[in-house]
Design brief:
Length: about 240
């Protein structure tokens, strides 16, 4: 892949006193967060905590009601170096390979290089040999890996993932987690949400715990899971419901 690190970096992504309101309801409430290079940042918390809104905002898909977002110290940066995979990605009515070609068409990759690039991407996500299959006939786990390949076609510096293994069986979950590890080792910053504490333990370098639209606790994953600093953190990893 192209060495995007030679270009101006979008990291750190800094959220300063961010609020997002919907019909006067606070979806995010005065959130401040720095997303730094390194191992995956995993955002956890109960349903409705604001996790998806947080990564959509950091990606640049929505604007805050108040507060400020910067990428690499710059404001209003187009998301050309960022990519996102949603919990239920839409598959185009075309072949698996053509889905990735559609993504490559929006990049600067020459058409002559598309076959080798697709082969590289399919090797990363574990879809080698299925390029001719209709994308909508892939299994749920395969479709999620195809969505990852499409996102990686943009050669992102930061990859946002919203509940990437939700509703997948253990084998498909392991395949997605293997892709996430492979992506992280390539220097791509992964920021993901999950409801699965086991997955967070396996993948996270940093944990962000959210509740009721606020960031409750941030810290290295190893410390969070052994010595949480907040009562909410202790309750959450102990299996209690945060309401």
């Amino acid at each position: 892949m192209t060495d995007m690190r030679m270009l101006a970096s979008d990291l750190p992504i800094v959220l300063q006193d961010i609020s997002v309101l919907a019909r006067e309801l606070a979806i995010l409430d005065r959130v401040s967060l720095r997303i730094m290079p390194g191992a995956p940042t995993v955002v956890i918390g109960p349903n409705g905590a604001g996790k998806t809104t947080l990564i959509r905002l950091a990606m640049g898909l929505i604007e805050p009601t108040s507060g400020h977002v910067s990428h690499g110290g710059r404001s209003a940066v187009p998301p050309t170096r960022r990519a996102i995979v949603f919990q239920r990605p839409v598959m185009l009515r075309r072949s698996t390979a053509a889905n990735v070609e559609y993504a490559l068409a929006s990049t600067g990759v020459a058409r002559s290089e598309w076959p080798s690039r697709i082969e590289e991407l399919f090797n990363i996500v574990g879809l080698a040999g299925v390029g001719a299959r209709p994308a909508r006939r892939l299994s749920g786990g395969e479709q999620q890996r195809l969505a990852l390949a499409r996102a990686l076609a943009r050669d992102p510096e930061v990859l946002f993932l919203d509940e990437p293994t939700a509703s997948l069986d253990p084998a498909a979950t392991k395949a997605i987690e293997d892709v996430i590890r492979a992506v992280a080792t390539r220097g791509i910053k992964v920021v993901m949400t999950t409801h699965d504490l086991g997955e967070a333990r396996r993948l996270a370098g940093e944990i962000v715990l959210m509740h009721r639209g606020r960031v409750i606790e941030i810290g290295p994953a190893a410390e969070f899971f052994t010595r949480p600093k907040t009562e909410e953190g202790r309750r959450f990893i102990g299996g209690e419901l945060l309401v």
